[in-house]
UniProtKB/TrEMBL annotation:
SUPFAM superfamilies: Acyl-CoA N-acyltransferases (Nat). InterPro entries: Acyl_CoA_acyltransferase, BioF2-like_GNAT_dom. This is BioF2-like acetyltransferase domain-containing protein. It comes from Streptomyces katrae. Residues 214-360 form the BioF2-like acetyltransferase domain. Pfam families: Acetyltransf_6.
Length: 408
């Protein structure tokens, strides 16, 4: 199917686990329509019933959307920063400089080869959702279904002349999927760590604070106090008007630039509007205001989604001048969401990737996020394999220092 709209919402969502909000029909259709992504969905049917599926993104331009294509996943600025940090560990400044120069030369050669040999690319991922999986209906023989869908992906790429296939931002430790991908010749590499906050039996913000180390608990209480002293407050907006949504899209630009993502304010306005109109995604919009602010004049915002008992703080942005040193980010994204979660019975907050230190210090635990890549051409595949092996090793050295489980 060459569009999400070609697949029935109930048909697709029957395959999606309740907490995988970024694989849901509402999410995929929203990002497809708002950004013009070229999505391809593969369905496995048994008789008239759909029993498995996987969604992909056709990427024709390696510069169009970083982190959703092979070049960005293996050679992007964020990845290169990780590799340089890994090379600097346990090395003298001179050794680090020599290793960095060697890395830069290898990256120039292999990135150029990948740009020439990998496109158009079929990327199995959720745009803006950073999630990838093969979905199966409960009760379906998962290993066989995955094999059928991977064969369908291979056949599609041969027919369409697509030279590379990848699964990006795959998490969950699915042994059946990992065996199938390896069996089909995909190369595995560690991409990053994603962070979840497990609230366990916490029934209040104070009980959550009790799970932190004493020194960190003192710091958090000070941040909460300074937020109030700065004259800032959090407000939930039940029915935002277009002016407020436009202001949120404006504020989101800083976050997009931080991670090297393209800035398209109009598309973000359309996406926020679509998400807030999709009740199955459990959307909620929170804003930070100064006491004197009213209407669309807000200093920060956070758009959250909630599904399957998991809270997903997703889109955010702040006016740094307006919020000043009031710790608006930590109060809105962490402490207010913890209060909301425990009050509503949510037991887990999914914070995704990035900002690792801030998340670890507030009790979040990391889990590995993987990538898998395969070239149709045997020679192109052989050429990229040594680089992927080194990339994976350096990522494990760096990220494994944050959580030893990653090394296993």
């Amino acid at each position: 199917m060459r569009s999400t709209s070609a697949v029935g919402r109930e048909e697709w969502d029957a395959l999606v686990p309740p907490d995988r909000v970024y694989l849901s029909h509402d999410w995929l259709r929203a990002v497809e329509e708002c950004f013009g992504f070229e999505l391809v969905l593969f369905l496995l049917r048994d008789g008239g019933r759909t029993v498995a599926g996987v969604q992909g993104l056709l990427v024709r331009d390696p510069d169009a959307f970083p982190y959703h294509d092979p070049t960005g996943a293996l050679f992007g600025d964020y990845e290169m920063d990780h590799l340089r940090q890994a090379l600097e560990r346990d090395r003298s400044p001179q050794e680090s400089a020599e290793a960095g120069a060697l890395l830069a030369a290898v990256v120039r050669a292999e990135a150029g080869h990948t740009r020439a040999a990998a496109y158009p690319a079929l990327v199995m991922t959720s745009p803006y959702g950073y999630a990838s999986d093969v979905l199966t209906l409960p009760g379906t023989a998962r290993e066989g279904a995955i094999g059928e869908l991977l064969a369908a992906v291979d056949a599609f790429c041969r027919a369409e002349g697509i030279p590379s296939q990848s699964f990006l931002w795959e998490s969950g430790g699915d042994a059946d999927l990992h065996r199938a991908l390896a069996g089909h010749g995909y190369l595995e590499f560690l991409s990053d760590l994603e962070y979840d906050l497990d609230l366990g039996a916490c029934a209040s913000l104070e009980e959550y604070l009790g799970t932190l180390e004493r020194k960190r608990r003192t710091v958090v209480r000070a941040e909460i106090r300074k937020f109030s002293e700065a004259g800032l407050r959090v407000e939930r907006i039940a029915d935002p008007d277009p002016e407020l949504i436009a202001r949120c899209a404006e504020l989101s630009e800083g976050q997009q630039k931080k991670y090297g993502l393209p800035v398209d304010r109009g598309a973000m306005e359309r996406l926020f509007t679509a998400l807030l109109a999709a009740p199955a995604l459990g959307p909620a919009l929170y804003v930070v205001r100064r006491e004197e602010e009213r209407g669309p004049d807000v200093s920060g915002f956070l758009l959250c989604l909630e599904a399957g008992g998991v809270l997903h703080p997703k889109f955010l942005g702040f006016d740094a001048t307006a919020v000043g040193a009031g710790y608006a980010y930590f109060n809105l994204v962490f402490y207010h969401q913890v209060e909301r979660a425990v009050a509503g019975g949510v037991r887990r907050i999914s914070y995704g990737m990035g900002s690792a230190d801030a998340k670890r210090l507030r009790g979040c635990r990391p889990a590995p996020v993987r990538g898998w890549i395969r070239f149709s051409s045997p020679s192109a595949h052989r050429r990229i394999e040594p680089y992927v092996t080194v990339f994976d090793c350096l990522k494990k050295q760096l990220l494994g220092n944050q959580d030893g489980r990653v090394l296993r």
